[in-house]
Amino acid sequence: MRHAAITAVGHFLPDERLTNADLERMVDTNDEWIRTRTGIRERRILRDDDKGTSYMAARAAQDLLERRGITADEIDVIIVATVTPDMFFPATACLVQNAIGASNAWGFDLSAACSGFLFGLTTGARFVESGQHEKVLVIGADKMSAITDYTDRSTCILFGDAAAAVLLEPEESGCGLLDAALHIDGDGWEALCMRGGGSLNPPTYETIDKRMHFLHQEGRAVFRVAVQGMADISAEIMERNGLTGDDVRYLVPHQANQRIIDATARRMGISSDKVMLNIDRYGNTTAATIPLCLHDWEPELRRGDNLVLAAFGGGFTWGAAYVKWAYDGSDVAVPQEAVAEAEG
Ligand code: ACO
After folding, report:
1. Ligand 1: does its nearest atom lie under 6 Å from the Cβ of 5?
2. Any ligand 1 atom below 6 A from CB of 108
3. Number of alpha helices (DSSP H) and beta strands (DSSP E) in the chain
C-alpha cells in the first residue's frame, strides 16, 4: 500500500529571545510561576515589522529543500497551517510559493490552531496516498507575537514565533502516516479565540479599545479539556494500532503546557525520556510545535521508529497520529548555515 512518509524536515526560528526575566519587567509575573505552571523559560520573537508568518514559513521551506537536496519547482502542493496568516487573503501558501519559487505547486492555508499541523499532515497525506501528487510540503507557522496581548499576564507568557515544515513523499514498504484520529468541537470556541478582525467583528475603534484583536484564552477551562482530550486521543490511537508504551519510540506532543504533556505520557505508559519536549526553549508556537520537535529530534530518529503525534487547540480541535518514521536522521546532510546557528 502507498503511504505518505515524512522524508525531510526544516525549520526557522527568529533570533530574538523573550525570557521570563524580560516578562517580569512587562507584567506582574515571575520566573518561578511560569516555569512550574507551564515549563517555559524563553520564547523566540520575530521583531521585524515588515515580516509576517510567510517569511518564517518560507525560510523553513528553504531549509527543508536544502536538507532534502531538491529544488522548489519539484514541490506539488504547499499546505500552511496557521492562525496568524500575513493577511486574510491571499493565502500564506501563495506568498510562500512565490518566495521560494515553487513554480509547479498549488496550495492553501489551513486553520486549526494548535492542531493545525496534524490536520495539515493528514490532509497532505491523502494527496500522496491517492497517487495524485509526489511531493507535498506541510508547514506549521505562527507569528503569535502579532496577536498576543503583552499586558495580559495569563497569555503573554505562553506564546512564541516559529515555523517548521515536513515533506511528504510516497513510501511503499510500511513507513509513513499509518493512522490519524481527528476531532473538532465548536462548543468550546469562546474559551480560546480572537474575536476581532473577521466578518463578525470587523476592525473598528471599539474592537481595538476592547482588545478584540488579541488572542483570548480562559486558561483553566482549556487546561481541563486539553489534558483529557490529548490523553484520550493518544491512548485511542495506540489501542487501535495495537501499540504499548514499549512500542512507541517517541511521543511528539503539541507544546502548550508541560503539565498537559506529562499527563498524556503517563496515560500512554511511556517514560519522560521518550517525550519530545522543547517548550522550555520556544514556548507555544501553535502550528509549529510538532514539526519543530521533529526537526530538533531528527538526528535521533531511525527508520521504523514508531511516533505518536498529539495536539489540542482552539476550536476546539484535537487529534493524534501514528507515524512510522521513514529514514535515519543521522544520515541527513545539515546545511552549513544551520550548523553555524546550532553552534552559535
Ligand atoms: N504569573 C503569575 N500569576 C499568574 C499568571 C502569571 N503569568 N497568570 C495567571 N496567574 C494567576 C491567576 O491570576 C490565578 O490567580 P488567583 O488564583 O489569585 O485567581 C492563578 O495564577 C492561577 O491561574 P490559573 O489560570 O488557574 O493557572 P493555571 O494553573 O491554569 O495555568 C495556564 C494557566 C498556563 C494558561 C494553563 O491554564 C494552561 O496551560 N491552559 C491550557 C493551554 C492550552 O492547552 N491551550 C490550547 C492550545 S493554545 C492554541 O490553540 C492557540
Report:
1. no
2. no
3. 12, 13
**109 and 240 together in one domain:** no
Three cell numbers, residue 187: 462548543
**Residue 104, domain extent:** 3-174
Whichever domain contains 189, its CATH number is: 3.40.47.10
221 in the same domain as 164: no
Q: Is 264 in the pocket of ligand 1 (CB under 6 A)?
A: no
> Looking at the domain assignment, is residue 337 inside a domain?
no
Question: In the block, which residue shows the cell 511560569?
Answer: 34
Q: How far apart are CA 133 and CA 125, in angstroms?
A: 9
| Rounded distance between C-alpha atoms, residue 55 and residue 51, angstroms | 6
Residue nearest ligand 1's atom 8 by CA: 154
Q: Is any ligand 1 atom within 6 A of the Cβ of residue 38?
A: yes
Q: Structurally, how many domains does the chain consist of?
A: 2
Contact 277, 265 (CB under 8 A): no
Q: Calculate mean pLDDT across residues 89-107.
A: 98
CA distances from 317 to 118, 119, 154, 164, 257 (A): 10, 9, 21, 20, 16
If asked whether residues 131 and 152 sit together in one domain, one would say: yes
Q: Are residues 170 and 205 in the same domain?
A: no
Q: pTM for this structure?
A: 0.96
* Catalytic residue annotation: 114, 254, 284
Strand ranges for the chain from DSSP E: 3-12, 17-19, 42-44, 77-81, 106-110, 136-143, 161-171, 176-184, 192-193, 216-217, 250-253, 306-313, 317-324
Nearest CA to ligand 1 atom 24: 220
Residue of minimum CA distance from atom 22 in ligand 1: 220
Residue that finishes a domain, picked among 174, 201, 235: 174
Burial class (CB in 10 A: 0-12, 13-18, 19+), 337: exposed
Domain end, chosen from 174, 200, 227, is at 174
Residue 336 lies in a domain: no
Kindly state whether residue 338 falls inside one of the protein's structural domains.
no
Ligand 1 centroid–CA 219 distance in Å is 5
**Do 95 and 112 belong together in one domain?**
yes
Query: pLDDT tens, 171-220?
Result: 999 999 999 999 999 999 999 999 999 999 999 999 999 999 999 999 99
